[in-house]
Design goal:
- This protein has one domain: TIM Barrel (Alpha-Beta Barrel), CATH 3.20.20.
- It is globular, with a radius of gyration of 18 Å.
- With 290 residues, it is α/β, with parallel strands linked by helices.
- The strands form three sheets. It has an eight-stranded parallel beta barrel with strand order 1-2-3-4-7-8-9-12. Strands 5-6 form a two-stranded antiparallel sheet.
- It contains eight helices and twelve strands.
């Protein structure tokens, strides 16, 4: 497992939570994450509150609008704003989605990149350009998708090829693996086992919506379910207890309920950290699930 500039369990900061999370400390939440597009150039009262958070907690950024898979030119003004935002607020790391969201204009959704060799080369070149501009490594997230246009490779082959050719890191979203495994009928544990261990640095975990027996929708609007916790547990077993963020974008429950899920992350991490310090013949303790 590679080192990462934050550790432990994190929580996504949303504007609606600016007041509700003020009482938390780094004992409760070890880091926070924001989408920079939602906070760049934010001033006034909300900007002041945000600054109080970035002075109190380590932060990472998870971008929404880079559109790394698009054929449109990269938005260099956005990248310049992100670079300035990272510097201004001491942001520890930047991640983005392995998808695209523009086509001669913003599409306001994450569209799947065709799984082709040509797309691998195109996306890897753009990731390299972004890393060179920002002067730092970035991590790309495996995304949920509902169709695979012009597919020439499997999802896992495409992800691995992009990560390797771009020489970037992997943001592992375990809920997206679970959602895709239902929608595209594959074994999520086999998928997890094929991801590059030397590139995985950071994890997202979230809830989703059951649209039908064979269709799950990645919403970040519900509690994390047991099969996704189990997949996170398996990810820790393979990659180590990587820093992990709980994502919740709407239907946000009271903070106390959010903290139950954050504490579940901590418990799983602690169990795996303990297991690595045990002798090979020893067995790790079981983890309580809520």
């Amino acid at each position: 497992m590679k080192s990462f500039p934050v550790q432990g369990a994190g929580l996504g900061l949303r504007r609606s939570l600016l007041d509700d999370l003020q009482h938390l400390t780094t004992d409760d939440v070890q880091f926070m994450e924001v989408a920079p597009e939602n906070w760049i150039h934010l001033g006034g009262r909300m900007g002041k509150k945000f600054r109080q958070y970035t002075e109190k907690f380590p932060f990472v950024c998870h971008g929404l609008s880079l559109s790394i898979g698009s054929t449109d030119p990269l938005d260099m003004q956005l990248l310049a704003d992100i670079k300035d935002f990272i510097k201004t607020h001491g942001i520890r790391y930047y991640t983005e989605h392995l998808s695209y969201c523009s086509d001669s204009g913003h599409l306001y959704d994450l569209i799947p990149i065709p799984f082709t060799e040509e797309a691998v080369r195109h996306v890897a070149q753009r990731i390299t350009q972004v890393q060179d501009f920002l002067g730092q490594r970035i991590a790309m997230e495996n995304v949920s998708y509902y169709c695979a246009p012009s597919q020439e490779m499997s999802e896992i082959e495409f992800i691995n090829a992009v990560i390797e050719e771009a020489d970037c890191d992997l943001l592992l979203d375990v809920n997206n693996i679970y959602v895709n495994s239902i929608n595209h009928r594959y074994d999520p544990y086999e998928f997890l086992a094929q991801l590059p261990a030397h590139k995985a640095v950071y994890v997202h975990v979230a809830g989703h919506f059951d649209e039908a027996e064979d269709l799950r929708v990645d919403t970040h609007g519900a509690d994390v379910i047991d099969p996704v916790w189990d997949l996170l547990d398996a990810a820790y077993a393979r990659f180590g207890a990587m820093p992990t963020l709980l994502e919740r974008d709407f239907n946000i429950p009271p903070v106390q309920q959010l903290m139950v899920e954050v504490d579940t992350i901590k418990s799983l991490q602690a169990a795996h950290q303990k297991s690595t310090s045990l002798k090979p013949s020893a067995q790790p303790t079981s983890v309580k699930r809520w």
